[in-house]
């Protein structure tokens, strides 16, 4: 049985936000909820800029699942962490627990209350019937049941974001590293801009985080 | 999304798309094979203008009188670069396209870039007391004073600022939402940088010189 995983190669990510837009479009995610985000550090600093695309990592020992007071989370056979919006009480514990900031809440609750938690589903929908309108309205499109991979990984313009069976993803990543090495030389940074005059150049101690 | 180029062209037919074009510096079929116009009409380097003056004015260029040298010389003589010492360049954002009306009306894209901004070097900003994220004024020789958010970054040098050009719907600091027909306004509106960019037209194509002009950036008093 496949064990679904995401990996985003920070050397390849060009912050095009294609993954973000693909996810938003595929599931019609409301304004204010960002199932997937691209984080960029050292924006504008030559040679130091790195971007990575982050969404739910579908953890093996998911903190969100562990803290939920109404136990609305479940895991599919393929390792995808999903939840049931009908049971969710919008307490926000999962959001506090998650190290990636994956569980989010739409800002349209009554009296400013949180609505139902929403997060990346690995394009695997929810407990409703596969492909039904109820499933789409609540959780977005179920691509996995159609034999497809998540929209974000499919859309990635540089194939930095890989999503799918963990063994295959690891194989692809390993092949890349073996063939091209690692770091910015993968893209020929030194050829284009010259190698750093200080060969021991390290990232600055304080990093600026954008978004 | 399907990876068709990889699956079909490369793996099946062995057709590898790669560039083998060469950029030639001498454009033999243009009136000036090595470009004569090297310093912009509005620039910060009078010494380079003296070394590389631009074309003479054209009386009739596609039926329009089009000015080059007279403008460049006048700017040098009036020392315009002392009043506007920073180079202003305009360019693209990944989230938006062109004038921006269509893409700024798309909710997925609009959420990603919600304000027009000016990228300023930390040194330039510090000299003016401008802080990251606060509104500031970019003023140019056209008389325009556009209000944009400051984005302090090392991505531009201390002598340059960058403003993206996909925004419109604000005029000199005022949101023009009330002038749009009901429901027609894009989700995101902002200053149009071309309110501020200056005169200048390419000697062959008449393409406007909006990518380089001069400006000053001012803090908005509290």
Which structural traits does this protein have?
heterodimer, A: about 210 residues, alpha+beta, three-stranded antiparallel sheet, two-stranded antiparallel sheet, about 15% strand, globular, B: about 220 residues, Barwin-like endoglucanases, six-stranded mixed barrel, three-stranded mixed sheet
Largest interface: A-B, 15 and 13 residues
Shape descriptor of chain A reads globular
Helix content of chain B: 10-25%
N-to-C SSE string of chain B, H for helix and E for strand:
HHEEHHEHEHEEEEEEE
Structural class of chain B: alpha/beta
- How does CATH name the architecture of chain A? 2-Layer Sandwich
Q: Number of helical runs of chain B?
A: 6
Question: Span from first to last CA of chain B?
Answer: 50 Å
Order of helices and strands of chain A: EHEEHEEHHHEHHE
Number of domains of chain A: 1
Your description of this structure?
Chain A is globular and about 55 Å long. Chain A is built from 7 helices and 7 strands, in the order βαββαββαααβααβ. Chain A is α+β, with helices and mostly antiparallel strands and about 210 residues long. The longest helix of chain A is centred in the C-terminal third of the chain and has 15 residues, at about 165-180. In chain A, a hairpin with a 5-residue loop joins strand 4 (about 75) and strand 5 (about 80-85). Chain B is of the alpha/beta class and about 220 residues long. Chain B has helices at about 5-10, 45-50, 70-75, 80-85, 105-110, 120-130; strands at about 60, 65, 85-90, 115-120, 135-140, 145-150, 160-165, 170, 175, 190, 215-220. In chain B, the strands form 3 sheets. In chain B, strands 3-7-4-6-5-11 form a 6-stranded mixed β-barrel. Chain B has a 3-stranded mixed β-sheet with strand order 9-8-10, with no helix packed on it. A two-stranded antiparallel sheet of chain B has the order 1-2. The longest helix of chain B is centred in the N-terminal third of the chain and has 9 residues, at about 5-10. Classes of the chains: A alpha+beta (about 210), B alpha/beta (about 220). The interface between A and B is medium-sized, with 15 and 13 residues.
């Amino acid at each position: 049985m496949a064990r679904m995983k995401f990996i985003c190669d920070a050397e390849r990510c060009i912050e095009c936000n294609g993954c973000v837009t693909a996810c938003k479009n595929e599931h019609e995610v409301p304004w204010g909820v960002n199932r997937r985000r691209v984080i960029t550090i050292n924006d504008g600093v030559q040679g130091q800029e790195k971007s990575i695309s982050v969404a739910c990592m579908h953890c093996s020992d998911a903190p969100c699942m562990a803290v939920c007071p109404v136990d609305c989370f479940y895991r599919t056979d393929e390792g995808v962490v999903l939840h049931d919006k009908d049971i969710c009480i919008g307490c926000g514990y999962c959001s506090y627990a998650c190290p990636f900031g994956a569980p989010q809440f739409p800002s349209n609750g009554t009296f400013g209350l949180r609505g139902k938690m929403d997060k990346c589903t690995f394009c695997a929908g929810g407990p409703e019937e596969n492909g039904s309108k109820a499933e789409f309205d609540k959780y977005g499109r179920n691509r996995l049941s159609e034999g497809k991979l998540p929209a974000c990984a499919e859309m990635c313009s540089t194939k930095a974001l890989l999503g799918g069976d963990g063994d295959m993803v690891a194989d692809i990543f390993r092949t890349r590293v073996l063939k091209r090495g690692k770091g910015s030389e993968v893209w020929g940074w030194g050829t284009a801009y010259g190698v750093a005059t200080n060969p021991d150049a390290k990232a600055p101690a304080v990093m600026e985080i954008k978004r | 999304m399907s990876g068709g180029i990889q699956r079909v062209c490369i793996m099946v037919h062995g057709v590898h798309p790669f560039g083998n074009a060469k950029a030639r510096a001498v454009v033999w079929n243009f009136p000036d094979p090595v470009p004569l116009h090297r310093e912009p009409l509005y620039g910060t380097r009078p010494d380079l203008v003296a070394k590389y003056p631009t074309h003479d004015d054209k009386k009739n260029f596609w039926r329009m009188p089009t000015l080059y040298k007279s403008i460049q010389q006048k700017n040098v003589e009036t020392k315009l670069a002392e009043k506007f010492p920073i180079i202003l360049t305009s360019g693209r954002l990944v989230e938006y396209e062109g004038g921006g009306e269509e893409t700024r009306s798309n909710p997925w894209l609009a959420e990603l870039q919600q304000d027009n901004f000016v990228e300023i070097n930390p040194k330039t900003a510090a000299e003016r007391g401008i802080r990251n994220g606060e509104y500031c004024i970019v003023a140019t020789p056209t008389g325009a004073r556009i209000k944009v958010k400051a984005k302090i970054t090392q991505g531009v040098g201390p002598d340059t600022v960058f403003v993206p050009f996909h925004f419109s719907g604000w005029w000199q600091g005022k949101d023009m939402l009330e002038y749009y027909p009901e429901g027609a306004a894009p989700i995101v509106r902002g200053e149009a940088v071309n309110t501020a960019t200056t005169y200048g037209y390419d000697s062959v194509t008449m393409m406007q010189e909006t990518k380089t002009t001069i400006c000053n950036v001012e803090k908005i008093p509290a």
